[in-house]
Amino acid sequence: MKGLLKYTLFLVLPITLVVLWLAGVFHERIEAKEVQRESKLVSGVKLGEVKAIDTVAVSFTGSIEASERAEVSTRIMGHVVEVPVKEGDSVKKGQTLVKIDVRDVRSQIKMAKSRLAQAQENFKAAKANYEAVEKTYRRFEKLLQDKAITQHEFDQIKARYEAAKAQLEAAKEGVRLAKEAIKAASTNIDYGVVKAPFDGLVVSKLVDKGDLAKPGYPLVVLERPPFKLRVNLPEKYIGRIKPGDRFKVVVDSVGRELSAKVIEVSPSVNPMSRTFQVKLLIEDKAPLRSGLYAKLLVPKKGATTLLIPKEAVYQRWDFTGVWSVSPEGVLKLRLVRLGNTYGDYVEVLSGLDAGERIVIEGIEKACNGCKVGG
Q: What is the mean pLDDT of residues 200-219?
């Protein structure tokens, strides 16, 4: 019995007391509650709202073309000695674009003049011979009438006369051809200086000093405004697009939204693409050139469309989201699904509601659970 008592006093009781102490029985009890974490304050962000509009613009891609375009070439062959213009230069009508070596043309003129001199000498000789033979011919005509010579003798002198006359005509034609050759060669001298046919912009320089210029091959390409937009629209728009209508045109390469007026509508539909062609005149001044892509914005009425600025979209790999702001100013990253792009805005298909506050600038500073400050 004494052994059991000792066992209880010296072993079981101390162990029990230690366990109770570790369990906090002998400590003051603290009421359990959620630990509140202080939110980080974020500044330097700009807030905006999700816009809801009833009318949006559908974009259709087209191509810019100049109202007037010239691929300037030359009529002579020769090496380029100077190109005083470069791409992007504005030029005036008559301004020199390319200079070509015309030494070969000068040689042709010199040879043509030598041929003319020879042709003129031949003409003089043929004329003198003709005049002499003609006198004999006229005399023999009278002798034949007086029957002082035979018909055979007259026929011989007549043949000589006709031959001399033919030689004179040939010599005369030789002089004419030699003069034409000089005139043509002299004209070619002018083609050694290629000039601008109108006021415009140099959009392409196809030769440099030392290149060989060939007849009919473009040397410089000029364009001048106003520019046009050529675009193909779906057949459902036939009857809705008419000459005189005005639309907005976005040219991404120049970062501009321009005004354009419809000047031509094709009356027929392409049976393969089911589209028809429309031409619009760009009314605003902008640094355009042929071949640029542009988007025609055609207003479309329908269901409400939610729009947010492009800068508000947060993308990381396959994740696309937007930083929303609660009424208390707390940031939360929301997954969204986007649709078409309309200028500087993008359509939101799901993930946000109209009127919600979102971060539209400074999204790189946002963080989940952070609070928007000043």
A: 89
Q: Using the Cα atoms of residue 89, residue 94, residue 95 and residue 98 in order, give the sign of their dihedral.
A: positive
Question: CA-to-CA distance for 50 and 61, rounded, in angstroms?
Answer: 27
What pLDDT, on the 0 to 100 scale, is given for residue 154?
A: 79
Pair (166, 87) in one structural domain: no
Rounded to whole angstroms, what are the CA distances from 63 to 54, 70, 279, 283? Answer: 29, 18, 10, 16
pLDDT, residue 35, reads: 47
Which 3 state secondary structure label does DSSP give 303? strand
User: Which amino acid is present at 320?
Assistant: T
Does 200 lie in the same domain as 296?
A: no
> What is the pTM for the complete model shown?
0.51
pLDDT for 233 equals 92
Q: Is residue 181, in this structure, part of any structural domain at all?
A: yes
pLDDT tens-digit map of 143-153 = 878 777 788 88
Domain presence at residue 12 = no
- Residue 29 pLDDT: 59
Beta strands in 73-191 (DSSP E): 78-82, 90-91, 96-100
Q: Are 163 and 286 contained in the same domain?
A: no
Residue 81 belongs to what domain range? 74-93+196-218
Whether residue 31 is contained in a domain is answered as no
Among all chains, which residue has been given the structure tokens 């031409």? 279
